[in-house]
Amino acid sequence: MKKEYDGYTVVPYPPVRKMIADILELGHRKHMIHAFVEVDVTRARRFIREYEAETGGDLSFTAFVLTCLGRAVARNKYMHAYRSGRNKLVLFDEVDVSTPIEIEMDGRKVPILHTIRATNEKTVRDISLEIRKVQAEGAKSASAPTTGRSRLFMNLPTFVRRLLMRTMLRNPHRAKEERGTVALTAVGMFGEGGGWGLPLHQHTLGITLGGIAEKPVVVDGQIEIRERLSMTVSFDHDIIDGAPAARFTQRFKELIETGYGLIESG
């Protein structure tokens, strides 16, 4: 309950912030390596604008990146492998991506975590429709952190919540069900201009989309102004070595720059 005093106001600590704090604390336990890259998204963004102008349809840029991500991970399943016990790795066929989606709740914008299942098997349009559906449902979404089972979980003491989360994460199949196999967050959606994020992830692979900025780039010997996306690719070094990480990053970048999946959406 909001309380006003002389010179300051006290408001409840949002339950979603508790979940985020728990995730960040668990992320400290990972041995992550990070790659800071720039990706040319001129072609992809131009296609999305032209598609929406011609058809009146709605394609999400985040959905496009998710489509490319699913395809790139499916090519090398070790990118979202998880340890099972001391001596085994579980390699999943489906690429389930956990991503925050901003919804309207109690008159304000709140991010909730939603998992796009089998991202590697869906089109840009499929994922766009799923994202819009979650946004339209708002607080009624089953993923909302203040409803049902999630509300009960958030009311547990902090040490109990984190103990339960650590226990859950030891089981790759349970972890996949609860929070997907890959994480993607788009900090650039909250502001304009370039810039990278340095995240903390629970996942073996995490993608952080930063800002998009127009920059002069040499293309075929000529200087052009291109739209460049700042992107951070994070890997759990306990599972993924530098060379496979570099090859994955290059493949992922190529898919984005060539506009993978957008032609099929037209």
Mind explaining what this structure looks like?
The protein has 266 residues and is α+β, with helices and mostly antiparallel strands. It has one domain: Chloramphenicol acetyltransferase-like domain (Chloramphenicol Acetyltransferase, 2-Layer Sandwich). The chain has helices at 15-27, 42-55, 61-75, 124-137, 148-154, 158-169, 172-179, 242-257, 262-265; strands at residues 3-5, 8-10, 32-40, 82-84, 88-90, 97-105, 108-116, 182-186, 205-219, 222-236. A six-stranded mixed beta sheet has the order 3-10-9-8-6-7. α1 (15-27) crosses α6 (158-169) and α3 (61-75) packs across α8 (242-257). It is globular.
CATH architecture: 2-Layer Sandwich
CATH T-level topology: Chloramphenicol Acetyltransferase
Strand and helix order: EEHEHHEEEEHHHHEEEHH
Low-confidence stretches: 142-146
Shape: globular
User: Count of helices?
Assistant: 9
The number of distinct β-strands equals 10
Write down the CATH class. Answer: Alpha Beta
Strand-pairing-aware structural class: alpha+beta
- What percentage of residues falls in helices of 4 or more residues? 25-40%
> Strand portion, in percent?
25-35%
Strand order of the largest sheet: 3-10-9-8-6-7
